[in-house]
Amino acid sequence: MTISFNLVYVSATTYKVNAAYIQNGVRSAATMWILKSGVVEAMYVTVDNGVTVDKNYTNSNAVTNYLVKLLAPVETYSQFGAELTSYSSYFQSTGTSPMTIGTNTFTVTNYTSISPNVDIPSCDGYTYALTTYQMSVGTPAGSTYEIEPYMELVGSSTGASGTNTFDYTIQITALTVA
């Protein structure tokens, strides 16, 4: 799975962002117009799974539904990052190191699971069993916003609908501080 985002332009009120998503050979692309308040005003989506489908979304529910699908891996990534403090008994810092993304070099704190196999209960009724967990957290030079530029998650989730496995490596490969 590959997801990329590119900031096309910034106006006084709006960001224009291009997103590309590839999973299991199916390519999706979206152009989004996002108000600086965070509201997605409109989105143009192309999906190519053998038959190209172009769709223009201006209805907020349709935009939200597509964004949920597009950003699901990023949400998983953010959820595990946010749970570092909530689940500090499961994770530990392995120290800091420099990280360079493009021309921006900054210090990141690296985390890993305390033991090779970690079971983490969740408020959504699932238990996450991690066999691999690594994450880096830091603030790019020129920014005050902390990001998670690297995460590797391998394991399974077990709940009412059964057990599902996952294997994510999520990495920010380009960065512009605006």
What does the model show?
The protein is mainly beta. Helices cover 15% and strands 58% of the residues. It contains two helices and eleven strands; from the N terminus they run βββββααββββββ. Strand 6 and strand 7 form a beta hairpin. The radius of gyration is 18 Å and the shape is globular.
A few lines on this structure:
It contains 2 helices and 11 strands; from the N terminus they run E-E-E-E-E-H-H-E-E-E-E-E-E. The protein is mostly beta strands and about 180 residues long.
Task: Please name the defining characteristics of this protein.
15% helix, 2 domains, mainly beta, 2 helices, 178 residues, 11 strands, 6-stranded antiparallel sheet, 5-stranded antiparallel sheet
Mean pLDDT: 76
* Terminal Cα span: 27 Å
Helix content: 10-25%
Q: Strand percentage, roughly?
A: over 45%
Largest sheet: 6 strands, antiparallel
Report the radius of gyration as a whole number of Å. Answer: 18 Å
> Uncertain regions: pLDDT < 50 for 5+ in a row?
none
**How many β-strand stretches?**
11
Tell me the structural class: mainly beta
Element string (H = helix, E = strand): EEEEEHHEEEEEE
Q: Into how many domains do the coordinates divide?
A: 2
Based on CA inertia axes, which overall geometry fits? globular
Continuous helix count: 2
- Quaternary state, please? single chain
